[in-house]
């Protein structure tokens, strides 16, 4: 049953879709937190909608939720520019397949809809800036 493959793998599916369009981050795309000694800029994605919810589409299970995408860098301009480049890539559906133990390919669609403000942080004795957006995200079986 498709539902068994989709729900335990929501974040793996989103990650695979983001990696397709996040060249400006050089593969530095992380769920919830980044490792301590990571190179800037990097992207963190996390749930912003109580883990989203399921819905039925043509008698198949699908998922919809809000995902926060945070671009982190040593300057606000770098964080904002990297995030703008990422969001410019949110055109159409991204096909996600080839994930271990998931036989069904999925379409992932991203629709930015709000902007967040984060204060400047201090990490390793340096200023770190965050630019962030909330993105309505849809995952549907292909």
Keywords:
142 residues; alpha+beta; STM4215-like; 8 strands; elongated
Give the topology string: H per helix, E per strand: HHEEEEHEEEE
Unreliable stretches? none
- CATH architecture assignment: 2-Layer Sandwich
- Please identify the structural class as seen in this structure: alpha+beta
Number of helices: 3
What is the domain total for the residues?
Answer: 1
Give the helix proportion (percent range): 10-25%
And the CATH topology? STM4215-like
CATH class: Alpha Beta
**What fraction of the residues are assigned to beta strands by DSSP?**
35-45%
Q: State the end-to-end CA separation.
A: 14 Å
Overall pLDDT, averaged? 86
* Counted beta strands: 8
Radius of gyration: 16 Å
Silhouette: elongated
Described by strand count, sense and barrel closure, the largest sheet is: 8 strands, mixed
Could you characterize what this model shows?
The chain is of the alpha+beta class and 142 residues long. It has a single domain, classed as STM4215-like. Helix content is 21%, strand content 44%. It has three helices and eight strands, in the order ααββββαββββ. The chain has helices at 2-6, 10-21, 76-88; strands spanning 29-31, 42-47, 53-57, 60-73, 94-96, 106-117, 121-123, 126-141. The chain is elongated. The mean pLDDT is 86.
List the helices and strands and how they pair.
Layout (H helix, E strand, L loop, with lengths): L1 H5 L3 H12 L7 E3 L10 E6 L5 E5 L2 E14 L2 H13 L5 E3 L9 E12 L3 E3 L2 E16 L1
Parallel strand pairs: 1-2
Antiparallel strand pairs: 2-4, 3-4, 4-8, 5-6, 6-8, 7-8
């Amino acid at each position: 049953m498709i539902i068994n493959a989709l729900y335990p793998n929501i974040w793996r599916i989103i990650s695979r879709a983001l990696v397709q369009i996040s060249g400006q981050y050089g593969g530095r795309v992380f769920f919830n937190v980044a490792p301590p000694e990571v190179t800037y800029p990097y992207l963190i994605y996390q749930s912003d909608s109580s883990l989203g919810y399921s819905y039925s589409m043509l008698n198949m299970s699908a998922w919809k939720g809000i995902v926060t995408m945070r671009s982190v860098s040593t300057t606000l301009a770098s964080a904002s520019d990297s995030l703008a480049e990422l969001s410019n890539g949110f055109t159409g559906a991204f096909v996600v397949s080839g994930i271990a133990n998931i036989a069904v390919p999925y379409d992932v669609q991203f629709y930015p809809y709000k902007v967040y403000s984060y204060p400047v942080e201090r990490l390793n004795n340096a200023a770190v800036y965050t630019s962030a957006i909330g993105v309505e995200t849809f995952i549907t079986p292909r």
